[in-house]
Amino acid sequence: GASGPPASEPPGSGSGSASAGADAPSGTLTVFAAASLTDVFTGLGSQFEAEYPDVTVVFSYAASSTLAQQITQGAPADVFASASPTTMQPVMAAGLNAAAPVVFAQNTLQIAVPAGNPGDVTGLADFTDPDLTIALCAEQVPCGDAAVTVFSAAGLTPQPDTLEQDVRAALTKVSLGEVDAALVYRTDVLGSGDAVEGIDFPEAGEAVNDYPMTVLSASPNPDAAAAWVEFVRSPTGEAALADAGFALP
Amino acid sequence: MSLSAHIVIQRGALPVDVTFEVQPGEVLAVLGPNGAGKSTVLRVLAGLARPHFGQVRLDGTTLDDPAAGIRLPPHRRPIGMVFQDHLLFPHLSTVDNVAFGLRARGASRESARAVAAGWVARMNLSDHSSSKPRSLSGGQAQRIALARALAGDPRLLLLDEPLSALDARTKLDVRADLRHHLADYAGATVLVTHDPVDAMALADQLVVVERGRVVQVGTPVDVSRRPRTDYVARLVGLSLLAGMAQGRSVVLDSGATVQVAEASSGPVFVAIRPAAVGLYRSRPDGSPRNVWPATVAGVTPYGETLRVDLDGQVPLTADVTPEAAAELDLVLGAGVWASVKASEVAAYPA
Amino acid sequence: MSLSAHIVIQRGALPVDVTFEVQPGEVLAVLGPNGAGKSTVLRVLAGLARPHFGQVRLDGTTLDDPAAGIRLPPHRRPIGMVFQDHLLFPHLSTVDNVAFGLRARGASRESARAVAAGWVARMNLSDHSSSKPRSLSGGQAQRIALARALAGDPRLLLLDEPLSALDARTKLDVRADLRHHLADYAGATVLVTHDPVDAMALADQLVVVERGRVVQVGTPVDVSRRPRTDYVARLVGLSLLAGMAQGRSVVLDSGATVQVAEASSGPVFVAIRPAAVGLYRSRPDGSPRNVWPATVAGVTPYGETLRVDLDGQVPLTADVTPEAAAELDLVLGAGVWASVKASEVAAYPA
Amino acid sequence: MARRHKAQVDGATGVPAALLIPAALAVVFLVLPLIALLVRAPWSTLGSLLSTPEVRDALRLSIVSASLATLISLVLGVPLAWVLARSQIRGRGVLRALVTVPLVLPPVVGGVALLLAFGRTGVLGAPLYDATGVSFPFTTTAVVLAQTFVAMPFLVISVEGALRAADRRYEDAAATLGAGRAMTFRRVTLPLVAPGVAAGAVLCWARALGEFGATITFAGNFPGTTRTMTLQVYLALETDPDAAIALSLVLLAVSILTLGLLRDRWLVRQ
Amino acid sequence: MARRHKAQVDGATGVPAALLIPAALAVVFLVLPLIALLVRAPWSTLGSLLSTPEVRDALRLSIVSASLATLISLVLGVPLAWVLARSQIRGRGVLRALVTVPLVLPPVVGGVALLLAFGRTGVLGAPLYDATGVSFPFTTTAVVLAQTFVAMPFLVISVEGALRAADRRYEDAAATLGAGRAMTFRRVTLPLVAPGVAAGAVLCWARALGEFGATITFAGNFPGTTRTMTLQVYLALETDPDAAIALSLVLLAVSILTLGLLRDRWLVRQ
Ligand SMILES: Nc1ncnc2c1ncn2[C@@H]1O[C@H](COP(=O)(O)OP(=O)(O)OP(=O)(O)O)[C@@H](O)[C@H]1O
Ligand SMILES: Nc1ncnc2c1ncn2[C@@H]1O[C@H](COP(=O)(O)OP(=O)(O)OP(=O)(O)O)[C@@H](O)[C@H]1O
Ligand SMILES: [Mg+2]
Ligand SMILES: [Mg+2]
Question: What ipTM describes this predicted complex?
Answer without folding.
Answer: 0.76
